[in-house]
Specification:
Layout (H helix, E strand, L loop, with lengths): L1 E6 L15 H22 L4 E4 L11 H13 L4 E4 L10 H10 L4 E2 L7 E3 L2 E6 L23 E7 L18 H4 L4 E5 L5 E4 L2 E3 L15 E7 L7 E6 L4 E5 L2 E2 L5 H8 L3 H4 L2 E5 L2 E4 L1 H14 L5 E4 L4 E3 L3 H7 L3 H15 L5 H21 L1
Parallel strand pairs: 1-2, 2-3, 3-4, 6-7, 7-8, 8-10, 13-15, 14-16, 15-17, 16-18
Antiparallel strand pairs: 1-11, 5-6, 9-10, 11-12
Length: about 375
Amino acid sequence: MFRFLHSSDLHLGKPFGRFSGDLPALLREARYGALGRLAEAARQGGASAILLAGDTFDAETPAPATVRHALQAIAAADDLTWVMLPGNHDSLAALDLWRRVAADAPANLVVPTDAEPIVLGEAHVLPAPCTARRPGRDLTAAFDRATPEGSLRIGLAHGAVTEFSEEGNAALIPPERADRSGLVYLALGDWHGQTRIGARTWYSGTPEADSFKHDAQLAALLVEIAGPAAELKVAPVQTGVYRWASAAPDLRADDDVEARLAALLPPPAERRRTLLRFRPTGRLHLCGRTLLETAARAVADDFAWFERDLSGLAVQHDVTDLDQIDRAGALRRAAEALWAEAEAPDLTAEERAIAEAALARLYALASEVA
C-alpha cells in the first residue's frame, strides 16, 4: 500500500495586482498556508509523501523571502517526503531559483532536475521537469524507461493534454500517457481546476483558488495504490481558504430581486473568505434594478472582494418609472431623452446600453432624493 498527496500550482509569490488594500497580501499568505494544510491533509490520510506537479513558484525570479518561507514550511513537515517538480512558471531555466533551493533545501525535499526515477519505498516516481517555459516537446516520453519489476510507476508532469492549458499552448502530453508508459498513476499540474483525464490520470488543481475560472474551493488529491494492477482510490481533500465565486442570474421584470440575490449569497460566516463576482443578466424595471443595486451595495463589505456589474441587465421600459423620476420639468425631459436613445434602432447596442445605464442612474438618484 502506498499513499501520497498530489497537488500543484501553488504559485507562491503571485502578486494579485488586480486587487488593492490588504487583499493581495492576504491571498499570498493563504498560498503559503496551503503548504501546511497539504502536510496536515497528508498526515490525516495516512500519506507518506506529497508530490507537487509544478509551478510551486509563480515566477522564475521569486523574492528570496518567498523561497525561504516555502522551504521553512516544508522543513517543518519533516515527517513527509516532498517532491517539487519544476513547472513552466518555475522551469529549470530559472537557474538562480533552483540554485537557491538546492543550497537551502531540507533533507525531506526532492527537486528532480532530470528524468531519473525517484524511489519512495515501493514506488518509483518518474518526473518530467519543465526544461523551459515552453519546452516544445513531450517531456513525458521519458516515462518509458524501465523500473524494477513490480514497482509502482507514478508519473509526475506539468503541461497540457488538451486545449485548456493555462498558457493556451498546443497539447503536448498524450492523454493516454499512463497506459503507454505503464503508469499506475499520472500526477499532472498546469490546469488549476481539479480534472480527471482518465482512470489513472488527474490534474490535482491548485490547493488555493486564484481565479474565477473554477467556481469552488479547491482541493488536493489523496491517492492510494495497493499494487501495480490494483484499482486506484483517488479522493479530493479540501485545502482552500478562500473561495472565488461567480453569480450570473438571469432576472425577469417580475422577480423579487432582493430574494434572488439573497439566495445566491453564501452564509454570512463564509463571506469574509469569499471573492464574489456578481454579473446578472436579463431585464428589469428601473425600480427592480435600483433595488438590486442597493441590496448588492449593502452586502458588498461583507466579502473579501465583491464586484457588481449590472451592464448585462436591460431595462424593461415602463412609463410609470419615468413618473417616479419626475412628472414634468428638466428631469422628466432628460429621462424621456434617455428612454428614446435606449430604444433607438439606429444606435449601436453599446450606445443603447449606455443610455439605459444613465436612465437607471437617474432613477436611482431621483429615488434617493425622494
